[in-house]
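dumping the sequnces here before i forget
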Amino acid sequence: MAEEVSRKPYVREITSEWIFRHPRYLRYMVREFSCLFIGGWTLLMVWGLKQLAEGPAAWAAFLECLKSPASIVFHVLALGFATYHSITWFNLTPKALPLQIGEEFVPDAAISGAHFGAWAALSLAVLYFAGAF
Amino acid sequence: MSERVVELEVTRYNPEADKEPHFQRYSVPCREEWVVLDALNHVKENLDATLSYRWSCHMAVCGSCGMMINGEPKLACKSFLRNYQGVIRVEPLAHFPIERDLVTVIDDFMAKLARVRPYLIPKQEKPLGEGEYRQTPAELKRFKQYSMCINCMLCYAACPEYGLIPKYIGPAAIALAHRYNQDSRDGGRDQRQQEIAATEGVWECSFVGACSEVCPEQVDPAGAIQQVKIKSTLDWYMQHLMPWLKK
Amino acid sequence: MAISNKPIVWGPFAAGGTVTAFITPALILLTLLAALGHAPDLLAYERLYAFAGHWLAKLAVAGVVFLSLWSAAHRLRITCYDLGVRADTVVATILYAGALAGTGASVYYLARI
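..and the predicted 3d for all of it:
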């Protein structure tokens, strides 16, 4: 009879350094961090609503605050992160919502492409009706 | 056939003698067309017979030889030496306890696999006399890719949520549950929902997508998980907002 | 295992992620233009006040604020866990409460327009 081998499995600890183990995990973190900017910008707009409700002087003060260097930097970063959120979201949509027509599945590129097209059209419409151009 | 000397840095762990794992370096004369598994086999046959690791088919269908190769979860039989420069670090598959050397304890995955009932549960028992099930090509395509899973567990090694939350049922288990849920012959979705729509089911997933990136069979477990999330969410709201509706 | 009630928080997250993906970049561009001194016409007080006075606009704005804040809160909750913060229930409570508070504030201000 063979001898009993004693088992002693070794458990490797997980630390937060997993984020740096591969570029895909860093990209995931960047995508997740977009929530800080999208949430932050939305809260900024809620404050704007307050100023709008309080009258023209308050609203003018709000617009002035927007012009500060900190606000401009925040807006540029927020635009970048929000765009990254949109791009990653629409690229992942076909995985979550596959569409089978007949025997074949609609290609992923078609589903995300349709979303990107709608995004572009909607954005242009919003900018146009807001009088941005 | 040209040769190349490859430096392997391999995790060694003897549970009876070691407090913790350490690395051992091997200089392995390799053929150009070899994979990492060939190098390991050379080590075992010629340099160090004590090295322990799992392997079987050597053709990426059995799922046995999953390991971390330069920090990435890969099948050792599918990792071509020509794609690597310098010292190649070979470690046991991440997020699993190390049994010995490159052998991991896979009990957790085996238990989770059993929990999702990865077999056909027909809507109605059908005696043999009634004949075969018939399925259109479209019905087959609906689950085919999820049936390609070889249980290699690379997805568990890649998934940070599984690393952080050991209770998480994990990508392959959910993909396999989804494979049967999508099969027109099956009627067992309600039973599987008890496992995959629980907190430790799909809800621990944050759609990192690493699982699908490392999968050697293009099963796309990440896609399966999101589809289950959406269906489970629709079910939940229907059930709670319109309980009078029967499914 | 019992079927989880996670859909309560995940549903609005998914809806919010979709809504913010479609409209938030364009809206940020609007306020960025204002920050650079070229405020679009809509951001003039009279026009914006008139726009926000309509009940349909108020409903839409409140809805977008809720979904945006909720999906950000949910994502931040997951991120905290990913970075090693174990107190998930505490984090979740604070963040979701924050999202609801922000929504409540926006409803309150919209009501006064």
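Chain B has a mean pLDDT of 96.
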